[in-house]
Amino acid sequence: MNRRNFLALTTALVALPHLALAQDRLTVVTSFSVLNDMVSQVGGDRIDVATLVDADEDAHMYQPTPADARSLSDANVVVVNGLGFEGWMDRLIEASGFAGSVIVAVDGIATRDMPEMEGHAGHDHGAFDPHGWQSLANARIYVANIAQGLSAADPAGAEVYAANADAYLAQIDATEAELQDLLAEVPQDRRTVVTSHDAFGYLGDAYGLTFLAPQGLSTESEASAADVATLITQIRAEDIAAVFLENVTDSRLVQQIAAETGATVGGTLYSDALSGPDGPAATYLEMMRHNVATLAAALKP
Ligand SMILES: [Zn+2]
To answer: Could you check whether 3-176 and 185-299 share the same CATH topology?
Structure first.
């Protein structure tokens, strides 16, 4: 072997471990943008992660594409919220021939029942509120489930996932303190608000806010005229201060309710999807901060 060939060979050998590393990265598909950010935080450099439902898109109403089936068929792990949030996922997994492991992020939270609104027509969604990510206490459980699931699929990365999860949990704790400070100035009699659909029950339970919505748990259910009339009466009777738009729902109904009742439109909340990278809710923790800051700004006297 001449010197030049020898150099080429050693260069190739040095490059090999990097190649192997790139191939060893776990391929992870997540169902929606909020979960995608959490999984990226825990998985770090050891995973390649992509979401099916993008920023500002509505996961309730999502129609999977052939490209989604292809990305699932190549994936090692899929991460879903669960509790019926992604009603389309089981069929997609089956159609794709996906043979990896499924992490259900919501497993183990204290689920909220979803009481039907009076006069609200029955609908075929789950009995529990699926929007678990809307409380930081639940997010800690999501993070633990994600770290455990990634470690099971990639045992060599277990220490990395645990360390990433710990660092992320510390950020969650810091954000929790910020949210409590933001809401401290909102008086008890100004803590009931209106949004389009019932996405914020866990946030309300965590911070002493009451959310009313003309649409039920899922954006798939239509608000009936009776529901809207009941809500308008309630807004007037209880002197509800503000109504809020959501990034994933049509704003017309809430705008109409605001016009009829004289309630202020307090801003846009990010319910079931992050904003794009340049928006105010580009990550899960930015989303939580933006939502609570928007609520507090509108509700403070
Ligand atoms: Zn929703």
So the answer is: yes
Average pLDDT over residues 41-50: 98
Q: Which CATH superfamily is domain 185-299 in?
A: Nitrogenase molybdenum iron protein domain (3.40.50.1980)
| Alpha carbon of 197 to ligand 1 centroid (Å) | 7
CA of 53 to the centre of ligand 1 (A): 13
- Terminal alpha carbon distance of the chain: 82
State which fold the 3-176 domain adopts: Rossmann fold (3.40.50)
Residue 133 phi/psi, 5-degree rounding, is -65, -10
Q: For residue 276, what pLDDT is reported?
A: 97
Q: pLDDT digit string (tens) for 47-101?
A: 999 999 999 999 998 999 999 999 999 999 999 999 999 999 999 999 999 999 9
CA 255, CA 248: separation in Å to the nearest integer?
A: 15
Domain ranges of the chain: 3-176, 185-299
Neighbours of 228 (CB within 10 A): 16
Element holding 78 (H helix, E strand):
strand 77-80
Report the predicted TM-score, pTM, of the whole model to 2 decimal places. Answer: 0.88
Name beta bridge partners: 26. Answer: 47
Q: How far is ligand 1, taken at its centre, from the CA of residue 217, in Å?
A: 6
pLDDT, tens digit, 9 for 90 and up, residues 144-203: 999 999 999 999 999 999 999 999 999 999 999 999 999 999 999 999 999 988 999 999
CA atoms within 13 A on the CB side of 271: 31
Residues with Cβ within 5 Å of ion ligand 1?
Answer: 199, 272
Can you give 148-187 as a three-state secondary structure string? HHHHHHCHHHHHHHHHHHHHHHHHHHHHHHHHHHHHCCCC
pLDDT tens digit sequence for 28-40: 999 999 999 999 9
